[in-house]
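Homework-ish question, so no full write-ups if that breaks the rules, but can someone show me the predicted structure for this set?
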Amino acid sequence: MTQRDFLLVLGGGAATVAVSVVLFLAIVASQQPAGASTVVVGRRAVPTAVPVAQIERRLPAELRFLAPIVALQRGVAQASREAAGVFLVVLLTGATLVFGRDQVLRIQARTAGDAAEQARVFGIGVGALVALASGVILGFFVVLRSLVQSAPAGNLAFGLQTIVALLALVLLVVGVAALLGFTAASWRLGVWVLRRQPSPVLRERVPATLAALFVAAMLYLMAQLPYVGPAVAAVLLAYSLGAFVQARLVRTEARPA
Amino acid sequence: MNDRDTNVERAFTELFQRMPTEHAPLGFRDTVMARIAAESARRWRWEWLAAFAVAIPSLIFLMSTLIEHGDELSDGLGSIANALLGLEAWDASTSVYVDGIVLLAVALVGIAGLLVTHALLAEEQTRSRVHVA
Amino acid sequence: MQACLAGNGDAFAEIVERYGTRVYNLALRITNDRDAANDCAQEAFIRAYRALAQYDQNLPLQPWLLRIVTNTSLNHVQRWHAHEHPVEEMPDGAEPAELQPEALAIRREELGEVLAAMNALPARYRAALTLRHLHELSYEEIAHALELPIGTVKTHLHRARAALLTELHRRRKERTS
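A: Not a homework solution, just the prediction itself:
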């Protein structure tokens, strides 16, 4: 076993212990009696948090040395609730990188270029979004009118449900396309950030996928900002769709090696 | 650049083009590919390790939570089903609350799953690469 | 390259096959040691593999690979041959007078002598000369590879050529005397 391997195992062990301690404290916190609820959905009040001091008292005597970490565990729990969206974005982007790597790379290669090229991709996305929205609205109106004119009254509800299901399908397709484009954009930005790192260790050792995940999380957080958030989200959606459309429709191959 | 400089450049280029070049050592490509495979294997070991490090405690925690608070989960799912069927009205007083640590554990298990999938896929790809090389 | 990034089995092996000799020769010119050149060339390909995701696919591959192997080889020289004269210590004098294309009228059997004369130059000069005249990279690409401003690269090349000719001249004189 090399020193590097040893450090790797040591790091893995430390991570396991850290995660285990936080999770163990969470189990202690939610223990009966008067334990906090873990899941509440419906017309029930959200449980009040068990005081930190009370959780500390629940710890067995031999584990009292963990008491100072209880407050940290509480903080982690709150932060995790807030960060559920970030987790989701990281998971979706990661899953796209693993399962749709070819697609992401194709999009990345076919949207490569300077700022003008990126602006063009964004423009394509805006155009595609506008066309899509227009088509959906018109389609909805046409189907709705024909439904009202032709369907017997009893079938109207079923017809409306079908329209909603179709809309969900359209959203799903657009969502997958946007996710691929978003992942490619995160990859591009991640690589851009990595290339500008002064440290060669960071430049060479940090995998581009990790940088892409980091950028994806940052973009998501930017989209949550007050006032500018919706604009960021709209730009991201348009660029992502534009990148997907460009990669699908424009048959320009990257310059051969 | 003046004419003389251009001539000097050209003369040097011609000279260097005439100089003998050596072939890369025998088995150069195979050695490179084998070293890449070894390095990739180290990376997968890291991925497996990270996956286990976060997944095992998280899975134990989720199991424990399911055992202790399974009734709350089934109540929650029942409430969703009732709302879907119109048996229960949801309004502004409806609560949706999941303990942050449960979310963290679910996210960690998901990330671990992705790491393992990636490691397995990459292993297969590099095995074929080394085989080809 | 696209296939390579996507993890296609033989794509990177093909790149190693195609560029291996060029990369190895550049390492050999800079390190002047076959074993070191082999190590540096291998290391360069491994670094390239690691950095594949960061490679801009709109740019040609060869300068990128040559840049990596130049860095690897120069680092090797710096680490193991610290006694070599750094570029700054090379004398400025007597260069322009020697820079005549006629001085390069070298017979085939004297080419080995040129290689020997090259080895008397600092590693950075050897790198600049090889990148420019063997691999025919542009000044900009060489500047990128050596991480130097273009003006410095031009100066390096000018001095390197002069130094090479001076060394060749000295060797000829030694031989005739």
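Now go work out the reasoning yourself. Hint: Chain A touches chain B through 48 residues (CB under 8 Å).
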